[in-house]
Each structure stands twice: as structure tokens, then as C-alpha cells.
Design brief:
This protein is mainly alpha-helical. 88% of the residues lie in helices and 0% in strands. Helix 1 runs parallel beside helix 4, helix 2 packs antiparallel against helix 4 and helix 3 runs antiparallel to helix 4. The N and C termini lie far apart (53 Å).
Length: 226
Amino acid sequence: MQRHFVEELESLKTTLIKMGSLTEGAIAEAIRSLLEQRKDLAQDVIDHDERINALEIEIDNAVVDLLALQQPVASDLRFLLAAMKINNDLERIGDHAVNIAESALTWAGMQAMKAPADIPQMAEITQGMLRDALDGFIHQNPDLSRKVLRGDDVIDDLNRKIVDELVESMRKHPATLKQALELIRVSRNLERVADLTTNIAEEVIFVAEAQVVKHHMTDRKEAAGS
């Protein structure tokens, strides 16, 4: 029975890694479709979202079965609880990739305005955070996860800067209203991806060290804002 349980856990981890890879690819392709004005890539992201959704259901069912049938404790229980949350976060990241791809489709059909230079930088940092979070999960590396947590503040600052710049552009050049709104949507979706990636990093620390860091991070942010 114990050997079977270990095999099931490894199978679950493999499926989660597969979902992470698909989600990471969706974000990368959505960003590329925007920056290169590639409607075909944007449509691919939208069309392939069903694969991520199907994996979410498969993983949820596997976690529930293992919790009900095996009644795990200690580190195994932490892993299963974290897997359920990471699964949900990855599915939501996939949804944000679709949102970015939809903005890319709209953007490609417009007379393009000059996008803020911070958007490619924001996209690059967000992708790096997601990559580190997934590597941290694969290798159970809490140090990588803490690196992800530090990156979240950078993304928040870039999002505010981009939105402020685009709002000012709309004020000065009303003809750019639609284009600017799509870019604001992209920036906010990237900011949400970074938040969800931070959630994943927090779960990795929880599994590896049995430490809940979410409230510590909240306290730190509140202190920084006071």
C-alpha cells in the first residue's frame, strides 16, 4: 500500500509539472503574440487553454482520491494540500494568458501606438518568476521560492508606472484610448500572474519547511507602505 501511495504521489507531481510547463508556455506565447503582433500565436493560446483546464480537473480528482483513501500525514499531507492550491493557481495563470492573447488579437487589429518600454521588462520578470517558482517546486528549493517573493514588489511598481504612463497618454491623446486600455489590461494581467506565481512560491516553502510565509509577507508590505 505504501509503495502504491508513493507511486501515486510521483504521478501527481509529474502531472503538476506538465501543467506548469503548459502554463509557462501559454504565458510566453501570449506575450510574444502581443510584442510581435502575431494573431496566429494569440489564437493558439486561446485554443489550447482547454488542455490546461482538463489537467486541472485531473489533478483535483487525484488529490481528492489520495486524501480520502490514504489519509496522509506530515510532509505528504502538506504536499497534497499545496498541490491543490498550486493546481488552482496554474489554471488561473492560464486564464490570464488567454486574456493577454485576446488583448494581443485586438492590439494587432489597431493602428499601433508606441507601447511603454516597461511592458517587455515586466513580461520578462514575470516569466522569470514563474520559471523560478516551478523550478522551486520541482526541486523543493525554498531559496528559489524566496527569490520569487522578492520579485513581486518589482512587478507591482512596474504595473503602477505603466498604468500612470498610459493614463497620461490617453489624457493627452484621446485617439489612443482603445490601444492604451488594451495595454493597461495586459499590464494588470501580468501583475495578477506575478501574484499567483507568488502564491505558488509560498506553497513550495510550506511543503519544504512547514512554514506559512503569506502573513509574514503581508506584514512586510504593510510596514513598507506605512
